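quick q for whoever's on today - can somebody do inverse folding on this one?? i tried earlier but teh output was garbage lol. tokens:
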């Protein structure tokens, strides 16, 4: 079971003691964890010794009405129980730049949907990409099948609205 770190300082302290181990970072909302997330975490973990996942704080989740569905603390708790994840931290910023600079993981993992120069998923990724480059962090795009929490939530919502009529 992965540990939930309450501060970036405590996470950094833990990682500094892990000499010669490859550290990877995944960052995102992870509002409703689905099979695409699990494939992403499994692929990421195969490439590193320690996998850290950072969760976007509630106030920065901009995925639509009534989102996030689960609070950042609930999302962190769920993620900490996934066998591929060694540590979880709730990010207090709207991007992962400060985390990348502070913990300097060997790898920053993103899904293949982020690989395109024209990706419109998250504009903060361009800031994160620059921070990774400046700190010699290799970005690895996992090549797993993908899924979308937003699409699933919309599908459920539209299904419930249709069934009411």
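ok took a stab at it. sequence:
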């Amino acid at each position: 079971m992965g540990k939930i770190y309450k501060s970036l300082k405590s996470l950094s302290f833990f990682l500094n003691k892990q000499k010669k181990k490859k550290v990877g970072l995944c960052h995102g909302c992870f509002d409703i964890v689905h099979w695409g997330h699990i494939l992403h975490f499994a692929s990421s973990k195969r490439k590193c010794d320690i996998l850290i996942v950072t969760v976007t704080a509630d106030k920065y989740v901009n995925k639509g009405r009534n989102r996030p569905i689960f609070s950042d603390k609930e999302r962190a708790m769920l993620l900490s129980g996934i066998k591929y994840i060694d540590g979880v931290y709730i990010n207090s910023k709207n991007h992962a730049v400060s985390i990348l600079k502070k913990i300097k993981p060997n790898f920053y993992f993103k899904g293949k949907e982020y690989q395109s120069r024209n990706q419109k998923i998250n504009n903060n990724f361009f800031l994160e990409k620059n921070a990774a480059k400046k700190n010699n962090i290799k970005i690895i795009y996992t090549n797993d099948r993908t899924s979308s929490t937003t699409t699933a939530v919309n599908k459920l919502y539209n299904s419930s609205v249709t069934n009411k009529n």
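fwiw Strands lie at 3-5, 23-28, 50-56, 87-91, 107-111, 138-142. also DSSP finds six helices and six strands in the chain. so keep that in mind when u check it
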